[in-house]
Amino acid sequence: MVSSSAMNDEQQSLLLSSSSRFSPPQGVKLSYGTAGFRADASLLPSTVYRVGILAALRSLKTGSIIGLMITASHNKVSDNGVKIADPNGGMLSQHWEPFADALANAPSPQHLLLLINEFVAKEGILMDGVSQAEVLLGRDTRPSGDALFEAARQGVTSVVGAVATDMGILTTPQLHWMVRARNKGMQVSEQDYFEQLSSSFRYLEDLIPAEKSKFDGLNNKVIVDGSNGVGGVKLKVLGSLLNALVIEVRNSSEDGGVLNDGVGADYVQKEKVAPHGFGSKDAGIRCASLDGDADRLVYFIVPPESSGRIDLVDGDKILSLFAVFIREQLSFLNENEGIKNSHQARLGVVQTAYANGASTNYLKQLGLEVNFTPTGVKYLHEKAAEFDIGIYFEANGHGTVLFSESFVGWLEARTKEISSGSNGSEGKKAALRLLAVSKLINQAVGDALSGLLLVEVILQYMGWSIHRWNELYHDLPSRQLKVKVADRNAVITANAETVVVSPPGLQEAINAETGKYHQGRCFVRPSGTEDVVRVYAEASTQEAADTLANSVAKLVDQFLGLGSS
Ligand SMILES: CC(=O)N[C@H]1[C@@H](OP(=O)(O)O)O[C@H](CO)[C@@H](O)[C@@H]1O
Ligand SMILES: [Mg+2]
């Protein structure tokens, strides 16, 4: 008997004929990596076509809508990439990544068909020609996006029963949000996204106590660097739906500048300089920067003199601001006599080893549980989902806040309960605020637009300037370096990438070096997106952090350098 998970002849010939139009590039090995496939756009049509097939299979397997995003985020404009959004709006299940790698690197249509047949059988995917699959397609503003969109569309529709829905030019988080919302049975147009964010923002503004200072004069304005990409365009639309807050967007894709060239969150965070178009005229005003696909957000302060150096208010500080606010709301809930069944909600924060040590100390001093995972949003997100409220951020500005469904249900019940009793109490307002935050923040994935609105409304609530926020703690000086080695995968780490277990002896040498520095901390790990080993060092002075990073980079070179075998 033919199993329903095998493709019939018609299905196989459809796949063979369409895949023969997309030959893989010669001599290039692609890997799904930390954030999907990325490469020079000219190398990608066959990969994107094949990821289209994978997305359709994933949709058949899960019986849910899947997302496919064409972007290379903060990479240069000539690059592009592709990644999958799973049914909950999160990253592709890690369990499917090896299949993605195998598909991308299959040398011929026949190999591709063989791989698909094997995988479909192993996963028990129904290929009965009756089951329906749907993939939402999004792309950023890169010029190569249109051709790659067409490759993705052909990949999806080469699987019988699968439809590709064009969602247009979007930020990555918008597409993830749409996938999550569609699978919850909600409306998912772009207008719905803007409406949900703007209405929950306005609602939060209305819940600011009268005695707390609101925006005044200069303070109601934020200037945002859109990295010459998609985020700026979308932020303008969002900004037009707000009342008190003025968002001035610079470096938007229609302004004609080159994507990610001297602009954007990655540039600002790594170089600690103002992006193109910002200068001493902006001193004292809150400034923020998005990356090329608007899933990262950092703030910065431009100094009055035109040295170019900025004060960076990074992902760690955004996390800290969110943690302070949410912790305060939880304490209102717990203190409130009128709230029955008050339970100690578990608030957890998640960071990676790249979090500045001063931020970790600060969060621990607040009495919060601080957890560490390896680099990559998929790991942070998974950990944060274990809490009633989990906040995660990478230092580079990628992060969000997750609310468990049971906690949201508990909050909803409390707001109803209190409406018949102590109406308008701080406890009820705290519950309403937390519910509004759960709607404002994009719980599918880190989203610079929703993150920016949450930062802005919390600053209003606190009555804080960016300077006051920046003073929460002082970053320890740090330095990041990259070392090119023969094989970066020879570095094997443990304990959330803080300890090298192989090659033997390297960690001992790093320890000996780090021990020489006051407040020294240093770790090395292979990058998941570039062919390098990254070195991160922290110490009490910038000079010491630089020297420590340089010495450890030399050690990495000695143990694994290009010359070593
Ligand atoms: C030190 C650093 O910033 N690493 C980045 C970078 O990963 P690497 O594996 O370090 O190359 O790109 C990832 C995807 O954007 C991002 O999640 C991560 O934080
Ligand atoms: Mg990005």
UniProtKB/TrEMBL annotation:
Record bears the keyword Disulfide bond: no
Entry's Gene Ontology BP terms: carbohydrate metabolic process; UDP-N-acetylglucosamine biosynthetic process
Pathway: Nucleotide-sugar biosynthesis; UDP-N-acetyl-alpha-D-glucosamine biosynthesis; N-acetyl-alpha-D-glucosamine 1-phosphate from alpha-D-glucosamine 6-phosphate (route I): step 2/2
Reaction equation(s) it catalyzes: N-acetyl-alpha-D-glucosamine 1-phosphate = N-acetyl-D-glucosamine 6-phosphate
Domain Alpha-D-phosphohexomutase C-terminal: 482-554
Pfam families named among the record's database cross-references: AMG1_II, AMG1_III, PGM_PMM_I, PGM_PMM_IV
Active site, renumbered: S73 (phosphoserine intermediate)
Ligand binding (Mg(2+)): S73, D291, D293, D295
Domain named Phosphoacetylglucosamine mutase AMG1: residues: 189-298, 314-464
Binding-site list for substrate: E394, A395, N396, R525, P526, S527, G528, T529, R534
InterPro entries: A-D-PHexomutase_a/b/a-I, A-D-PHexomutase_a/b/a-I/II/III, A-D-PHexomutase_C, A-D-PHexomutase_C_sf, AMG1_II, AMG1_III, PAGM
Chain ranges of the Alpha-D-phosphohexomutase alpha/beta/alpha domain: 63-95, 131-183
Enzyme Commission designation: 5.4.2.3
Cofactor: Mg(2+)
Top-rank lineage group of the source organism: Eukaryota
Keyword Membrane: no
Co-factor remark: Binds 1 Mg(2+) ion per subunit.
Record keywords, A-Z: Isomerase, Magnesium, Metal-binding, Phosphoprotein
Family note: Belongs to the phosphohexose mutase family.
Designated name of the protein: Phosphoacetylglucosamine mutase
Organism of derivation: Vigna radiata var. radiata
